[in-house]
């Protein structure tokens, strides 16, 4: 993906930092606040189903607020808990929330984008033509050119819109993290990553299409110096973490970037690549055990 030192340092140095993190854990000794683990012992049980559902509901709400087409977010997201037969309806991509008032959007353009997204992610960019998009969107080819001068402009527009929505989503997630490297907030962050991959697989499929067909031309900037991007998202929380007793000493923004990529890779393999419990355990178990390693390191004192 042409990240070009996406951790902001040479590969050898980033590898050593990650090994240090895995060996020692985030906290070298008992911290002086509630923002980190109170014990060096791994968690003996998974979070309760109520806790997991509360985390997912919270992330669903943040995701709902991050759709690019909202000029003024509503007070509450759709209530999926009342679905018939106890089944939740499938979630739409973050780009296409169904509750948008009609007067705020151009329905033809929305149909064009939805059709293009589905076709691009099913048969690739070069395997799709304007005629295909027009037929699926139930508009004329001429109507498409009213909004976009070319097929690549549609692709680029989808990427820009998705990146904008995902950026807004991550901003909201980071604001929700009171103590980013505590067990509870690491669980919440993992839940957010799970939603980004499971509920918006189209975003990652667009990225892979971009890598294969455009040499990552449209997503390239997203992979440059990711710790610096996360430093801005963490804000003053990064400095507060470094001042806490027991902190491992590694740049918190770098640590968060490493955690981000671990969870991203895990959920992409599970969902996009149909891993089917590729670590031999459930998502919840995999997340909890990785958090144990992050908090405590591989070796007990």
Report on the structure:
By secondary structure, the protein is mostly helical. The protein has a domain at 11-81 and 163-296. It has twelve helices and no strands. Helix 3 (107-123) crosses helix 8 (201-214), helix 7 crosses helix 11 (252-271) and helix 7 crosses helix 12 (283-296). The longest helix is centred in the middle third of the chain and has 26 residues, at 151-176. The radius of gyration is 21 Å and the shape is elongated. The protein starts with 10 loop residues before the first helix and ends in a 5-residue tail after the last helix. Mean pLDDT is 83; it is low at 30-34, 70-76, 80-84 and 97-101.
Largest sheet: none
Share of helix among residues?
55-70%
Rg on CA atoms, Å = 21 Å
Q: How many helical elements?
A: 12
Give the total of beta strands. Answer: 0
Beta-strand residue percentage: under 5%
Distance between the termini: 39 Å
Low-confidence stretches: 30-34, 70-76, 80-84, 97-101
Which structural category do the helix and sheet elements fall into?
mainly alpha
- Give the mean pLDDT: 83
Bulk shape: elongated
List the secondary-structure elements in sequence, H or E: HHHHHHHHHHHH
